[in-house]
Amino acid sequence: MPVVQIEKAALCQCLNRKDFTDEEVDELCFEFGLELDEVTSEREMLAKEQGDAKAAQMGDQLSDAVIYKIEVPANRYDLLCVEGLSRALMVFQSLAQPPLYKAVQPAAGMQQMRVAPSTAQIRPYVVCAMLRNLSFTPASYKSFIDLQDKLHQTICRQRSLVAIGTHDFDTLTGPFLYEALPPSDIVFKPLNQTKEFSAVELMQLYSGESHLKAYLPIIRDSPVYPVIKDANGVVLSMPPIINGDHSRITLNTKNVFIEATATDAHKASVVLDTLVCAFSQYCSEQFTVEAVQVNYPDGRASIYPSLAYRQVDIQVDYLRKGVGRSDSQLTIDEICHRLTRMCLVAKATSDATVSVTVPPTRHDVLHPCDVLEDLAIAIGYNNLEMSLPPTLCTGKQQPLNSLTDKLRLEVAFAGFTECLTFALCSEKDISERLRLPLDSLPAVRIANPKTLEFQVARTSLLPGILKTVHSNRSLPLPLKLFEIQDVVYKSSDSSGSAVNSRQLAAVYYGKSSGFELIHGLMDRIMQVLGVPVDQYKLSATELATYFTGRCANVLYKGSPVGTIGVLHPETLAQFDLTLPASAFVFDVEKFL
Amino acid sequence: MEDLRSNILAYIDKHETCSSTELCKEMNVEHQKIVGALNSILAFGEIISAQPEVTSRLELTDEGRQVADHGSHEAVLFASVPAGDGAPQSELMKSVPNAKIGFSKALANRWIRLDKSAQGGPRVYRQVESVSDRIRHCLQMVAALSLDSLTAEERAELKKRKLVQEGRVTVYRVAKGPAFTLTLAKEETELTAEMLATGVWQTLTFKAYNFKALGQQPDCGHLHPLLKVRAEFRQIFLEMGFQEMPTNRYVESSFWNFDALFQPQQHPARDAHDTFFLTEPAACRLDAEQADGYLARVKAVHSNGGYGSIGYNYDWKESEAQKNILRTHTTAVSARMLYQLAQQPQFQPTKYFSIDRVFRNESLDATHLAEFHQIEGLVADYNLNLCHLMGIIREFFHKLGIRRLRFKPAYNPYTEPSMEIFSYHEGLGKWVEIGNSGVFRPEMLLPMGLPESVSVIAWGLSLERPTMIKYGINNIRDLIGPKVDLKMVSVGPICRLDK
C-alpha cells in the first residue's frame, strides 16, 4: 500500500488540534481506514538509511520535526498527498465542508491540444488542464512532484498506462500538438541536461539511469515516439520518458500546464482529476481549474479536466440493512450527515431514497456498496452491533482431505515422521536428480521464476523428502519420513489446464536399505485401507530412480497406483546422501 | 558386610545418633568400610539418615595401607628371622618384601643384630624375644580416624616415611531414619514374570525408583506442526457447520483467480512481480464459462459496469483471462463454488471453508515464502451484512482463544465493505493484524447469477502466522521446507489453539 508522509505540525494545524498525541492520530487513522505506519523525522529517516554518523554530520540541514508515515488504501488516489489526505480528515472531523471543484472555460477561449493520427500507433490519448495563478511554497512544490511520482507508481502502472507532464505555461505558446514521430526526428533539451539530444541518443543516455531506465521499454521498440510541442515547436515532453527543460516548473511558476498521455483514456482522466483537485487549493481562485480542449483527428473534441460530479440514488433501506440499523436507529438525516463527512454529499430525495453526489476525488466509488462502506466507516465499524448469521448448515469435509488426515495418523503411528516441503522446485529436482528425462514428465512450468527453486510444480514428493533427509542426516539413524501432499500434472487433453494429484511418499534412510520396512509400511497402509490381500501386489519392474532389480510397481486391482524400491545409488548421490535408502510413492486418490 | 551393617544398625538403635568415625572405633574397622556399609543401608530407603561433613584429615598412602594390613617393614623382617640360629642376610634380602628398609629400621630399633664374620657370609640374629609393632598400630589408628592418640613425633615420623598424607575425608553424622529397622531385606529392581507366577513378589522388597531420571523416549512417528494447526482450524470450521471446498487445484486461470472476482486486468496483483504465470500450460480454454454467457457478463461488468456499478471502464481482454497462473488465493475456488451455487434451481444458504496452498511471486524474507497456506471461510445467505460478518469472525476467533478484536476499514478489490481484523497481542502490548475480511462485491456475485438479495461474507488469514506464534518460530524456513530440523517436528506439543 502507498505511504504518505505528513508533518505532525501540519496535520495538527489542519485538524485544529495542537495537543494531538501520536496515539490519538493512530486511533483516527485506524477509524478512517488508514494506518499510522511510523512516527519519525527527517533526521531519523536519514539515519535509518545512511547511518547515525551521516545524519549527525548533516547537522541543521535536517529537520527534527515529527513526521507521520501513513499508509493509504490502494484505491484512494485522492489521499496520496498531504493536501488530499488532510482535507479528507478535516471533512471527516467536520472541520470543513467538502470543496466544490470547478473546471472553467476562460472568456478568451480555451487552450487547444491537437492530437495527430500518428499517436494511435503508440499512445493514443492525451488529457490537459491548467492551474492558474498558483503560488507554490517549497513544501507544496515538493508535494506536487511527489504526487505525480506516486500516481506514476500506482494507477499509472509505472507510466505504462498514463504519464504526467507539468509545465510552466508562461514559457510556452498554444495551441499545442500531440504527435508521434520517428525517434531521429525528435530533438530537444531534456530536463536537467545542458544540451540537445535526439530521442535515439536519449534512449541510449537513459539506459544507464536507474530512475528512468524502467520506462524505456514502453516505447523503445516503436517506430514512432510520442512528443508534445507548443505552437513554436518547443518540445514540452517526450512521454512517458522525460519532459523538456524549456518549460520546467519552478517554485516561481504561476501558471501550470498539465498534460497526461495515456493508453487508457479513463485512467488518464482520473489521474488528471486527482492532480488538479489536490492542488487547485493553491490557486488564487481556490478549487477552480482552467479547462483545455483536446481535438482528436476524427473531429471529436473533449474538454478536460472532467471534474464530473455523479449522482447516485440509493435506497435508504439498503444502507440501513447493510449496517444492521433500523429506521429509528439511523435516520435519513444522520445518513446524509455521515456520508457528507466522507466527502459524499448526500440529501434525502424521499423517505426511502438518498441522492449521493460522488465528487471527482472519489473515483473509487463504483457501486452503492462503496457508499455503504463509507457510511459504516462514518458510523465507526467498531460501533456496529455484532450478530451471528442465522445460516444453518451441516459441516462437511472433503472426502480426499478426510482420508488424507486418517492416513497421516496411521503412517505416524507406524513410526514415520511427517515432512512438509514445497510444491515448487527446480527442473533438476524432478528430472536429473531422480534420473528421469525432463521431457518425459508432465510438469507445469513457471514463466517468471525469480530463482531456480521455482521453475516447475513438483511431479513427485521424493525430491522434497530426500532434501529433508539430507538436512537431517546428523540425527540418530534410521530416518523414517513421509509426506502426503499434492503434486501437479499438466493435463493431457487440450483444455490447457492442470490437475493436482494427492500422493503419499515414504522414505527409510539408514545403515541398510530397509526395504523390508518400507514394504511393511506399504502392507500396513493397504491393511488399514481395507484392501484384501488378493487385490494388492508388487510386480517387479525397472525404473531409473530405483536400484536395478530392487524396484516394483504397486498394483491395486491389477492397475499400477505407485512404485516401491531401493533407491538407486546415483539417485542418492544426487541428494548428497551416503547411506542406502528405500522409498515408495503412491496415489491416494485411487483409494477414495 | 552383613554383620557390619547389623552391628551399625544395633549401635544406632542404642545411641540414636553417632558419627562415622565413632563407628570405626567401635567396630574396629576402617572408615572406608563403614562408609560402604552406610551407603548400602541407605540404598534400602529411609532406614537411616547420613549427613556428610567434609574435614581435613591424615589418610593412609598405598604403602601405609600395606603396613596397616601386614605390619611395618621392620616387624615383617623381624618375623622372618628365625629365633636362635638366625638366617643369612643375603637370603633375607631376597625373600622379604621391603627388606632394605625393614633391615635398617629393625637394626636401629635393636631388634636384630648382624654377624658379618659368620660362616657362609653375614648372618642375622634376633636380639629380642619379641617386638611390639608401634608403626602398624599408629597406622591402624589413622585408618580408624582416631588420631588423638598419636603423638606429634609419631605423626612426623609417619609422614616422613610417606606412610600417611594430608587429605580430605568425608565423615558422616548418622541418625535413625523414618523407616528405621534392624533387619535389612535384599531389594529387587524389577518386577518379573517369574515373581508374579510364583507369588514371591508379596515377600520381596523393591528398590526405590529414581524418579528424577528421564524415561526412555518411545520410538514413534510425528505429525508436522503446521498440519497439526491445520487440523485444529478444520475442526473449528466443522464445529461451526462449514463445508469444506475442493481446493486441490493449484493451477488456475486468471479468469477465476482475478476476473471473476472483479479484479481489473491492470491491477498490480496481476503483475509478474506478484503472480507466477506459466509457460506450460500457458493458457486455458474458458469454454464452459463462455457457453452460458457468464464470461460475457464478467467482461461487461469490467468494461461498462452493470448491476448498479459503473465498472472499471477499460478494454477487457479474454486472452488476459485465459492466462494460467498458480493461484494467488483460495478465493479462486470460492468463486467457482459460488458460481456453482448460483447454477442451482433454488438458492441454498451455504457456509464454506478451505485451508490450502497459495502462491505469490514476492520477495522472500523471514516471514514470507513463495507459497503459504490460506485459511478462508465464507457464508452465503439472504441479507447478510457487516454485523453478521463481524459476528461470525468474533465467534471464529473466540474458538481460537482470541477475545479482544477490533476492525479497521480496508481495501480489497473484490470485497466492499472490507475490514482488516486486529487482535490485541498481550505480549507485544499492541493491536496486530490477524486477518482480512469483507462482503463480496455485487459486481462479482450478480454476473454469476446469484439472487440480488444474497450477500456473501468472507474472511481469511494465513495458517503460517498463527502456527509460528503458537510454536515460537521466528523464521518461516524453520517451519516449512526441506531445511526444517526434524527435532522441531518431534518435540512440538499437541495443538490446542485455545490454550
From TrEMBL, chain A:
Supply the EC number(s). 6.1.1.20
GO cellular component terms? phenylalanine-tRNA ligase complex
Question: Do you know which SUPFAM superfamilies this protein is assigned to?
Answer: Class II aaRS and biotin synthetases (SSF55681), PheT/TilS domain (SSF56037), Putative DNA-binding domain (SSF46955)
- The residue ranges of the B5 domain are 307-386
Keywords per UniProt: Aminoacyl-tRNA synthetase, ATP-binding, Cytoplasm, Ligase, Magnesium, Metal-binding, Nucleotide-binding, Protein biosynthesis
**InterPro entries the UniProt entry points to:** aa-tRNA-synth_II/BPL/LPL (IPR045864), B3/B4_tRNA-bd (IPR005146), DNA-bd_dom_put_sf (IPR009061), Phe-tRNA-ligase_IIc_bsu (IPR045060), Phe-tRNA-synth_IIc_bsu_arc_euk (IPR004531), Phe-tRNA_synthase-like_B3/B4 (IPR020825), PheRS_beta_core (IPR041616), PhetRS_B1 (IPR040659)
One Pfam family, please name it. tRNA_synthFbeta
Q: Where are the transmembrane segments?
A: none
Names of required cofactors: Mg(2+)
Q: Which GO terms describe its biological process?
A: phenylalanyl-tRNA aminoacylation
Principal cellular location given in the protein's record = cytoplasm
- A single MF term (Gene Ontology): RNA binding
Q: Where in the cell is it found?
A: Cytoplasm
PANTHER family assigned to the protein according to its UniProt record, in alphabetical order: PHENYLALANINE--TRNA LIGASE BETA SUBUNIT, PHENYLALANYL-TRNA SYNTHETASE BETA CHAIN AND LEUCINE-RICH REPEAT-CONTAINING PROTEIN 47
Which protein family is it in? Belongs to the phenylalanyl-tRNA synthetase beta subunit family. Type 2 subfamily.
The identity of this protein, by name, is Phenylalanine--tRNA ligase beta subunit
Q: Which organism is it from?
A: Macrostomum lignano
Automatic annotation (TrEMBL), chain B:
> What GO MF terms are annotated?
ATP binding; metal ion binding; phenylalanine-tRNA ligase activity; tRNA binding
Where exactly are the transmembrane stretches of this chain?
none
The EC category is: ligase
Name any cofactors this protein relies on.
Mg(2+)
Task: Give the UniProt keywords, A-Z.
Answer: Aminoacyl-tRNA synthetase, ATP-binding, Cytoplasm, Ligase, Magnesium, Metal-binding, Nucleotide-binding, Protein biosynthesis
Catalytic activity, reaction form = tRNA(Phe) + L-phenylalanine + ATP = L-phenylalanyl-tRNA(Phe) + AMP + diphosphate + H(+)
On the tree of life, the source organism's domain of life is Eukaryota
Q: Which InterPro entries match?
A: aa-tRNA-synth_II (IPR006195), aa-tRNA-synth_II/BPL/LPL (IPR045864), Phe-tRNA-synth_IIc_asu (IPR004529), Phenylalanyl-tRNA_Synthase (IPR002319), PheRS_DBD1 (IPR040724), PheRS_DBD2 (IPR040586), PheRS_DBD3 (IPR040725), WH_DNA-bd_sf (IPR036390)
Q: Where in the cell is it found?
A: Cytoplasm
Q: Name one GO biological process term.
A: phenylalanyl-tRNA aminoacylation
Alphabetized Gene3D superfamilies for the sequence: 1.10.10.2320, 1.10.10.2330, 3.30.1370.240, Bira Bifunctional Protein, Domain 2 (3.30.930.10)
GO CC terms, sorted: cytosol; phenylalanine-tRNA ligase complex
Identify its protein family. Belongs to the class-II aminoacyl-tRNA synthetase family. Phe-tRNA synthetase alpha subunit type 2 subfamily.
Self-association and partners: Tetramer of two alpha and two beta subunits.
NCBIfam families noted in UniProt: pheS, PRK04172.1
Q: What is this protein called?
A: Phenylalanine--tRNA ligase alpha subunit
Species assigned in the record = Macrostomum lignano
